[in-house]
Design a protein that fits this description.
2 copies of one chain form a homodimer. By secondary structure, chain A is α+β, with helices and mostly antiparallel strands. Chain A has 3 domains: about 90 residues, Uridine Diphospho-n-acetylenolpyruvylglucosamine Reductase, domain 2, CATH 3.30.43.10; about 120 residues, Uridine Diphospho-n-acetylenolpyruvylglucosamine Reductase, domain 3; about 190 residues, 3-Layer(aba) Sandwich (Vanillyl-alcohol Oxidase, Chain A, domain 3), CATH 3.40.462. A 7-stranded antiparallel sheet of chain A has the order 15-12-14-13-17-18-16, sandwiched between helices. The longest helix of chain A has 23 residues. Chains A, B: InterPro entries: FAD-bd_oxidored_4_C, FAD-bd_PCMH, FAD-bd_PCMH-like_sf, FAD-bd_PCMH_sub2, FAD-linked_Oxase-like_C, Oxid_FAD_bind_N, Vanillyl_alc_oxidase_C-sub2. Chains A, B: Keywords: FAD, Flavoprotein, Mitochondrion, Oxidoreductase, Transit peptide. Chains A, B: GO terms for molecular function: D-lactate dehydrogenase (cytochrome) activity; D-lactate dehydrogenase (NAD+) activity; FAD binding.
Amino acid sequence: METAIEELRALLGRDAISIDPDDLHRHGYSDWSTTNVDTLPTAVVYPTSTLEVSQIAKVCAKYKIPVIPYSGGTSVEGQFTAPVGGFSIDFANMDKILAINDDDLDVVVQPSVPWIELNEHLKPAGLFFPVDPGPGARIGGMVSTSCSGTNAVRYGTMKDWVVNLTVVLADGRIIKTRRRPRKTAAGYNLTGLFVGAEGTLGIVTEVTLRLTVLPQETSVAVVTFPTIRDAAAAASSVMRAGVPVAAMEMMDDVQMGVINKVGSTKRKWKEVPTVFFKFSGTKAGVRDNIETVKAIAKSHMGGDFQFAANQAEQTELWSARKEALWSMLALKGEDEELWSTDVAVPLSRLAEIMEESKKDIGGLGMFASMLGHVGDGNFHSAIFYNKKDPEQVEKVKRVVYKMVDKALEMEGTCTGEHSVGLSKKASLVKELGPETIGVMRELKRALDPHSLMNPGKIFDL
Amino acid sequence: METAIEELRALLGRDAISIDPDDLHRHGYSDWSTTNVDTLPTAVVYPTSTLEVSQIAKVCAKYKIPVIPYSGGTSVEGQFTAPVGGFSIDFANMDKILAINDDDLDVVVQPSVPWIELNEHLKPAGLFFPVDPGPGARIGGMVSTSCSGTNAVRYGTMKDWVVNLTVVLADGRIIKTRRRPRKTAAGYNLTGLFVGAEGTLGIVTEVTLRLTVLPQETSVAVVTFPTIRDAAAAASSVMRAGVPVAAMEMMDDVQMGVINKVGSTKRKWKEVPTVFFKFSGTKAGVRDNIETVKAIAKSHMGGDFQFAANQAEQTELWSARKEALWSMLALKGEDEELWSTDVAVPLSRLAEIMEESKKDIGGLGMFASMLGHVGDGNFHSAIFYNKKDPEQVEKVKRVVYKMVDKALEMEGTCTGEHSVGLSKKASLVKELGPETIGVMRELKRALDPHSLMNPGKIFDL
């Protein structure tokens, strides 16, 4: 390990490698992760180019040292932990937007570009990148966790927006998965394979993303419902009616209370299940969509329709939703940790599983909220618990994995957008069965025979 | 081989295997393919279930016999040829729609379901499956070629619409790539890997497809342009303005002449470059979009705006576009063959490459047309040539591969939607380079070590 560090220092410069304990801790532990491990990375390496990443991979291959990519560090299922040590590759110095091809509707970026900053750069050209996970996320991690967010119901998830990837393989080879066409049917979809592979097949060092045009008109409306079931049923009806909502997000009574308590918005909200709708398109199109949604919501007991009066209020309302997890964290007690996890089910089953999970989570007697990307059949629960109280840990786990099992029973998935990391490995085996996991394992072995690429994540070898 | 056939007859019944010469020819040769080979499959097997496909794979693994999947037989780059013999697996008896989950917006089908028939079944539920390649295509082949069609500009391509796949691997193992959630980030995207793998990694035996809701309102408009360059530039501007056209298709002067000659529609068309626009959404949204497109087209010298007066005329206009290839074939002389191929480039380069290719193709002195999915940067050329005239064959090849090279130079792809088959293997190496092809090869070897799954396609081992 020491020799490897010295070799890398000779190649990349002394400052490119850190063994500072705080740095190691920040790269191996996360406050908002459901799983942390006792080990930390042995070193953190800060490459500045794809070529340097390739050099790192070659040295690591020589000394059989694990390699763990790191960008925003906002993942919640233990994706960047170092269960067997190894080098954390932090892309902090690879944070450039390399090209904005506005007439081609695409952009070339390095892994450490934050999506929020990217959108600020794109705004003058009237363009945006629609995948919107948690505020701190960066493109590298977003690719590797196949993330999504509130815009997914209209625009799809990460896999739909990656044109090509530059990837460094376990042995240091550099490949580019595609050129830059908007559409292609040429050869295996390697892009799609590396998206969501959580860095276990190779290290993403450059990304071309598709872009879309900022809509002419947007509008935000908020509707309350008597129960989660009513809210989820209304969301399913909106989807079934084919209304192209730009987003459709549900927060439960607890989460609405959090917004009030933290004061994220100027309004005081009713603390009942609430759906936030975003509409976008032309003026007339938005008006039509609002009318349809109003009628559907009413038929599901929706009430208290409120519209954002202007752009500022739209932003404020929507940020209340986007910062839900952060608002929760603001209320976290000294000894508390947050368990934030997600599942997804076929649309028609959403109302049932959300209602049931709400009951289970409520029964814990802990502070817990639920929020859902209800147009995708995908929802999150977030529970505060005391990590040092084994009984509490046990109770939370029981409720979470019961929710996962219920989702699987409904032909759903153990994670709609957080990905597997360390926490959902057993659930993934339940979800797909040993034969399908076997195929994943064979692919992994083909590209990473010594299991050096983010080992221990997604499945065990 | 004989022993294998006897074993399969014992397992599946005598009628499940055909060695009838006409049957072999139909499964190894295609009139509208750019590449045919001298060999034919040794037998055609007609399974009735996934389990039977698994039995076939096991027998073939035992005797090292290649396996070539066959559904609609409409591919054009030699995808279902048998360059080293083997068994063609025709899914004719696996043509059932197994479940329509209308509230989940998905459907479960067998490989031999034609997409047109599927949409007829979905219509009463107000749903449709938007991927629309050539009229005869069936779901199995559509998955394996990662096809698309005129709706791609709005709805994306095959890879965006597959929820899960049941796949039989080379050794007979049966896997399911996912359960049935609309969104998931759980494990490797095997679905996305098998989509577009042309049957070289395994045999798709069951498919869950996402569906969408039929739009309230549709409209079709036709606009003429003085040159292909103007038409392509107008299309790029429409994309850049973010108008959500449902489709945007260009046909050149020759293709418009074909429609007139064959009499596909009641109208007589000007034989000049023409763009067909389809609009869909709410009434008001469609009206808005039409106005925007009209203004853009005018600024690019577009004229002669014509709208379909009613639904029947919409269907007629659109079918003129959809049946373009068939219309061409109706004009094919006795000794002639059709070379139909496609490339795709970043949007801003489309006008240039289409203009240049038009010039080259025009210079051949043969009957040739061009048509483009111009919102995707993707276009086709179709050329009649006499296969028995080596000089003609040589000339066509030269023009086609010049077009491909030009597309690659522009960071494009050798195929936007037809996929590689036999004809584009060398182009794929040029496009992605030996390192990236090397990764595809390693994945192939991991899942199909004896290269029995549709061997010889996409790349050479």
